[in-house]
Design brief:
Oligomer: single chain
Structural class: alpha/beta
Distance between the termini: 12 Å
Number of helices: 8
Largest sheet: 5 strands, parallel
Number of domains: 1
Number of strands: 8
CATH topology: Rossmann fold
Helix content: 40-55%
CATH superfamily: P-loop containing nucleotide triphosphate hydrolases
CATH architecture: 3-Layer(aba) Sandwich
Length: 211
Amino acid sequence: MNIVLFGKPGAGKGTQAPKIADALGVPTLATGNVLRAAVKEGTPLGREAKAYMDRGDLVPDSVILGIVRDELAKPDYANGVVLDGVVRTVPQAEGLAAMLKSLGRKVDAVVSLEVPDEEIVRRMSVRTVCSSCQTPYSNLSPGDRCPNCGGVVMRRSDDEPVAVRNRLKVFNAQTAPVFDWYKRNGARLAVVDANGSVADVTQRVLHALGR
């Protein structure tokens, strides 16, 4: 089952993706994690992506689609995937559809995690992430150790309030139309209230998927 997890930055996609994937028995693909790893390594792709990410802008389609193409061709994804933050523009949605078709697959469902803007700003103002595995936290401070892998916890520059509000503007202008594109193209859509506990949101998503 190939699922596109959709929602504003900070809506909980990174938290929900592995839980939904575990329940469905498929892996996740989070291009944000791959891009940040490239930034940390200082690769040409990483340096290019960093300038966009630091401003809270979208990374260009050519970068996103190239990474997704390489990953989805691997055997690990043959039985399905939960795509976390992959489709952020209509051209990306079109490119993903063509890419999956070439692999004999399709998007089986699009799940939109719905959270008000002010709640997004509040969440991200206290969010930290592990510098190694990119696990997000709301209860750890910069410099703490990640209980998942032992990496150092940090705050990302694009989680600062000014950058978050800019990212929300970019989302409304460039990413929100993606949901309408899927609707016009007959995709199965699920709109899920992403407020509340992590477990409650996971159950809502699985219920919307008929699981």
